[in-house]
Structure formats: C-alpha cells, structure tokens
Amino acid sequence: HAKAAGRNNYQFFTQKMNLAAAHFELESSLRSALALQQFELHFQPIINMGTRKLHSLEVLLRWRRPATGLVMPDQFIPIIEDNGLIVPIGEWVIRRACEQSMEWRRQGLRPVPLAVNLSPRQFMHKGLVPSIRRILDETGIEPSLLEFEITETALMQHGDQTLEILDQINAMGIRLSIDDFGTGYSSLAYLKRFPVKKIKIDRAFVKDLEHSAEDRAIVSAIVALSDSLQLSVVAEGVETEGHYYLLQRQGCQFAQGYLFSKPVPAETAVHLLEQVPVT
Ligand code: C2E
Ligand code: CA
Ligand code: CA
Ligand code: CA
C-alpha cells in the first residue's frame, strides 16, 4: 500500500517535472524566436455588412516553430505576456503590420486599415507611445490605416494612465476599438470616457445566436447602446448565414469570421485586397 502510494507520488512528480521541462523549453525557444524570424502575421477580413465587401483586416500573430509547425497565439501569448517578451514581440507586430501595409500600397493595392491587437502588458509599458511614433515615422504609414484592439479588462486595469495613453494614441490619428466586448466588466457608459470608436462583440455571444433568445437580446442591447454612443460594432465569430442575417437585422455594421475567411498569410490576403476597388 505504502509502496504504491510512493510510486504514485513519484509518477506525479515526474509528470510535473516533464511539464515544467516542456514549459522551460517553450519559453527558451520563445526567447530566440524573434531574432530567428520565426514569427509571421496572418490577416482576417472584417466585412462591411451593408455591402458585404472588405472593410479592414485584423492582424493575428503566428509562430512558425521548427519541428512543431505553426503555433497558434493561445499557445504562446499567455507565456510571453507573463515574462514580458510581449513588449518587443508586440512592437515587432506593429512594425511588421505597417511595413506590410506599405508593401501592398507600393503594389498598387488599395490599402485597408489593419487592426493590431495590443496586450495589457504592452499597453501599460512606458515605451509604447514613443515606439508607435517611431514606427509611424519610419514606415510612413498613414495613421488612419492603423487600428488598435484593446480588451476592456486591459482598459480598466490602469486607472488614470489609461485615458492619457488612449488620448495620445488617438491624437496620432490611430483608431481604437474595444476587443472581446462583453466578457470583461466594463459598462458602455464608462467606455464613453475613452476615445474609442468601435467595439467588437465577443464570439461567445454570436455562436449560439440562432438558438438563444438571450444572446439575441444581449447583442441587440449592445448594438442599440453603441448606436446611441456613436460607436461602430463588429461581431466576431460569424460562421453562418444565420449569424449574418440576425446580426444585420439587429443593425450590426461589421462582421468577422469563418463565413468569410479564416486568418490567412499575406500572400493570400493580397487576393482579398485585389477585390477592393481603388477609389
Ligand atoms: P482575438 O483578438 O479575439 O482574435 C480573434 C480570434 O478568433 C482569432 O484567433 C481568430 O482566428 C478567431 N476567429 C475568427 N473568426 C472565427 C470564427 O468564425 N470562429 C472561430 N471559432 N474563431 C474565429 P487566433 O488567431 O487564434 O488568436 C487568438 C487570440 O490571440 C486573439 O483573440 C488575441 O487575443 C491573441 N492575439 C493574436 N495575435 C496577437 C498579437 O499580435 N498580439 C496580441 N497581444 N495578442 C494577439
Ligand atoms: Ca482582436
Ligand atoms: Ca476579439
Ligand atoms: Ca476573443
């Protein structure tokens, strides 16, 4: 009996050791990933629901890890958010997105806004605003072609500083949206104080829209309130024509989801841009 328990403890211990070792390995690979140019950007269309045409692209980070393949952000963003690597990596994302936009422009494609995610840690980092300024200067991108998505949780965490940072970003001409709306603890009235132009309704409220009267009520309330605060609304996770129909009927302006496209690499995103008429 005692022996068996000892063996179980031992197994438990080695399991934990293996997990810790795997985590350590992941973390040290992440430390060199930026220098080894293993990160890449993918792009997912955001559609104007009125015209069903491309409005903008969300920029989503991918890690091409040798021997593993393409690693999705939920596998590594929490780790780099935790150890601070998100600051240099996040800065690289902004720069790379701006460079990509300029490349498309040089190819004669009509540039659409690119929406870049900012993590809470990045958002509170002192160097953020100066580094954005530097990137705008060095790439020459039109600031109106850049948007930042920030979660409401990140906004609520940093008190007075938040408004100051948002005002500075807004003053540069970059638009701000609230990401994953409804999953945090903010209220729309509170958001009115921030220079935010857009909110993104989290997929959690969209996925059961066809079957849940409750979710329909929540979405229609968010749309109605955003209307009165003159905010635009993007619905995330639009996967079916049913979602599209219900969201459009409720007055939602923009949609993003697998119904149109999964996030795709730059070479594929070009074809989405080619469909946008040059104005
Ligand atoms: P997010 O900002 O909410 O991004 C939307 C996520 O939903 C993306 O996952 C996208 O692929 C997925 N998605 C879009 N449409 C659909 C759909 O119709 N159905 C389903 N099931 N999923 C859909 P992804 O690319 O895996 O990114 C996950 C999260 O990682 C993002 O959530 C964002 O929080 C974070 N992330 C990604 N790139 C970056 C980045 O460059 N910086 C930071 N700080 N976070 C990032
Ligand atoms: Ca986002
Ligand atoms: Ca989101
Ligand atoms: Ca989300």
From TrEMBL:
Superkingdom of origin: Bacteria
Protein name per UniProt: GGDEF domain-containing protein
Entire protein: shown range: 812 to 1090 of 1094
EAL domain span: 23-277
